[in-house]
From TrEMBL:
This is Phosphoinositide phospholipase C. Ca(2+) 4 binds at residues 650, 652, 676. InterPro entries: C2_dom, C2_domain_sf, EF-hand-dom_pair, PH-like_dom_sf, PH_domain, PI-PLC_fam, PLC-delta1_cat, PLC-like_Pdiesterase_TIM-brl. It catalyses: a 1,2-diacyl-sn-glycero-3-phospho-(1D-myo-inositol-4,5-bisphosphate) + H2O = 1D-myo-inositol 1,4,5-trisphosphate + a 1,2-diacyl-sn-glycerol + H(+). Signal peptide: none annotated. Ca(2+) 3 binds at residues 321, 350, 352, 399. It is a peripheral membrane protein. It comes from the Eukaryota. Residues 467-486 are annotated as: Disordered.
Amino acid sequence: MSAGRPQELPCTSLSLGIRDDPHVNVMMAGSTLRKVKSRSWKKQRHFRLLEDGLTIWYKSRWYKELLSPTRLFLCHNPVSVSVTELEAVREGHQSEVLQSIAEEFSADLCFTLVFHGRQGNLDLVAESPEEARAWIQGVRKLIHKAQTMDEKERLDQWVCDWFQKADKNKDGKMNFKESSIFKNRTHKIPPLFPQMADKSESGSLEIEQFVHFYKILTQRDEVWKVFQDYSGDGEKLLLEELENFLMIEQQEGGRSAQHSQELIDRYEPSETAKKQGVMSLDGFQMYLCSQEGSILKPEHRGIYQDMNQPLNHYSISSSHNTYLLEDQLRGQSSLEAYIQALKRGCRCVEVDSWDGSDGEPVVYHGHTLTSKILFRDIISTLKEYAFKASDFPVILSLENHCGIEQQTVMAQHLRHILGDTLLTTLLDGQMPQQLPSPQELRGKILLKAKKIGGLVDCLDETLTDEVSDEEEMANDDAGSPTKSKSKLSRELSDLVVYCKSVHFHGFEHARSHSKCYEMSSFSESKAKRLAKEAGTDFVQYNTRQLSRIYPSGLRTDSSNYNPQDMWNVGCQIVALNFQTAGLEMDLNDGLFRQNSCCGYVLKPDFMRDSSTRFSPERPEERQGYIPLRLSIQVISGQQLPKVNQKEGSIVDPLVRVEIYGVPQDQAKEETSHINNNGFNPLWNETLNFVIHTPELALVRFVVEDYDKASRNDFIGQFTLPFTCIQAGYRHIHLLSKDGTAIPPSSLFINISISELK
């Protein structure tokens, strides 16, 4: 191989599989595309796919003409996008930005790169339809390839990423200076480099040496020790030895015999070992690092719960002021906010409608400076995206501030745009004694709003169009709602079937007068007060009908309340500001991570029984009460990202485990911090908890960069229901603050769960 020419990386499996694809070749050759941020901001940039087949790199058209390195850096810094960050590609004018320039650029030139999480889209315009088609198809193939890589391919890709980051001058080698990239994570790299990897003493590593170097760095002594405990010869695990490990450590019981052979077939990289029916250390580590070896039970990833229970027997992933991308005072209202919420599995979205100046209803946060969007555009977006992430029903929560005329316009848009998707009649034509199930309502959109009379009364044409409009405002908490007479459109009223908004008059009144299709909304402060003062009554109330909780109007920054307090009393529609990352959304994502992320989670049986006496304040009084001991040995961490960009800063990681549930279960414990090692920190510390109501508990693992002088920096987290935890040796694949994956960052732990004696 000629000197100076980049060597072909053995880890570029992503690009090797599609290198001959004509669309990918166009991307590798590069294209001049317009990057569009608004109707007035359209800049030409040169885009191309790098040789790794994973990175899309772009720069300004004039970048290469600048001669001064100083000016080059100050004027424009090239940007790269990893294919793994992308979720999808949209064709044509499928973003608000591209719709705004539709008259200037035809749809066949336009496309949008959509990112995971809350990151904004990248809107692009090609110079020809053929070029646009090549990029659309090429990126889609790369996304599919990235999403379907097996464990070995992922590992190869990580190695490739490291080499690409380190090889600054792209000569196919990594010199000592370039290896300083590893100092971002650990101080141990410099002495390792010359002694263990640079056998030729040339001061640089070629790719084969780098792979060996990387293997040294990622050598897992803690995994090797577990392997040694069950391996008779220290070299391999026989089928029987693997069975013993699965039965004793992973607590798999009777299924371990069949499962051990499946694991060898799935994760053992050596064909010779596979034929012999044994597992090597590499295969063992690959299994432990896989999704199957993760903390979340594999059987809970798909739909595993009974979806034939009444709607109010489920917790429902719900969004507040869904139209906002930012704060409640000046934030942008956007259709993209609905798309992002729906693709996260949200099943209840909110619309605040107001009279528009041209006869078309608009949506925004009333009496503020938030921007406005058309009601009809939201309904069109709902039609397209409602069932992409989940086909279980979507509830459209309507805060109606429109006059009669534009209410009728809204009703017409709902009927014409949604068509048969909108539920407008009772499923069986009979008065319901209980709400229908998510299974029965699959593929349907339900309108939640005020309604004239009841389900039978809507056939009575003599009813007045005036209804009591008891707004859920701050004075709700004082128990004295403002009563006013508001005109309600008959056409809009008739679209409300199973989710009629009514004022809450107290638990006793609801017990004797309320219908299953009636539901009330509670501010967070009112709901917290009711939960504390009458927890059992609140639980019973939620066994019969739906309740919706919304954030305080004082949360103008779009912050969130803790949803756990509401789930503890069985509230179903616990609405959060989805645009705001943080603990509260981590809990929401954690609860709904199970059951195929479908947005519906079946509540525990003691919260579905109308005669239940359960109170979150007194969990020990529940029938069948059995507290559990949770013991978590935090063993090690792997490749934790550097978050403090200060020069010379190295990660000092610690792990905190947090329990959220009934008040007695709320707890936090943390490890000590490890100085200057984010690459492979080793703790071997055990944290113990007692869980009184495991059915309601969430467990959150947080990794932080310790700072003795200021607040610790967040590195990553993972949250899941206690009932979804796999015991044994497990890896936790960490998520960013935004909720997206940050591979290969992980924690290695050993979990034990037992009855408290």
